[in-house]
Amino acid sequence: MSVDAPADCVFPWLAQMGPDPRGGAYTYDWIENLLGLHMHSADHVLEEFQHPRLGESIEFGGNRLILQHVDPPHALAWRSADGNWLWSFTIRDDGPGRTRLISRNRYRLPRTIDRIGMAPMEPASLVMDQKMLRQIAVRAEQLAARRSATDGSPGDGTSA
Question: What domain of life is recorded for the organism (predicted)?
Fold first, then answer.
C-alpha cells in the first residue's frame, strides 16, 4: 500500500495495534468483535503503546502473539506463541514524504483440519488486510498533515 506520509507517521499505528485497550486493527471492527476479538480501531495515537519492546505479547483471538522484531519506524513482527503464525509489517521509503506499507502473514498449519479451515479464511483475510492497510494509510496521512500544519514542515521528514 502506498502511503503519502513518512515512515514515522505510519509506524505509530502499527505500534499500537491489538485488542482493547490497544488501538485495534483498523479493519471492520464489527466483524472482529463478532469473533470476540475486542477490537476498537483508534483514530488517534495512543502514547502508552508507542515504545514496543521485544517479548511483549497480546491476545488475538485464540492466539497469543509475541513481538519478535521491532525496528522503528521501519518494521514490526509478531509471532504466535505456538510458532505457527508470523505477522510482519515493513515500511519502506518510497520518495520524499512517501512510504510503502507491506503486511505479510505466514502460517504453518500442521493438521489437515487446520488447512481445510484456512481455505475459506484466505479470501476473508485478504479483504480484512486491504481494509487495514487503507485505514492505516488514511491515519498516517492525517498525522503527517497535522504535523506539517503544526511545525510548518512539508510533512515528509525534511525541513522547510
Answer: Bacteria
**Could you identify the residue written with the cell 510533512?**
155
Say whether the peptide bond before residue 6 is cis (omega within 30 degrees of 0): no
Tens-place pLDDT, residues 1-35: 999 999 999 999 999 999 999 999 999 888 877 87
Nearest CA to 60 among 84, 37, 41?
37
List, as one string, the DSSP characters of 66-109. Answer: EEEEEETTTEEEEEETTS-EEEEEEEEE-STT-EEEEEEEEE--
DSSP 65: E
Which contacts of 68-72 are long-range, i.e. CB under 8 A and separated by 24 or more positions?
72/11, 72/15
Distance in angstroms (rounded) separating the CA atoms of residues 21 and 130: 23
Instruction: Report residue 89 as a C-alpha cell.
Output: 509489517
Give the start-to-end residue ranges of the domains of the chain.
Answer: 2-149
Among residues 69, 84, 95, 77, the alpha carbon closest in space to that of 7 is found at 95
Q: From CA 4, how far away is CA 145, in angstroms rounded?
A: 10
pTM comes to: 0.86
Q: 2-149 domain in CATH 3.30.9?
A: no
What gap in Å lies between CA 23 and CA 13, rounded to an integer?
8
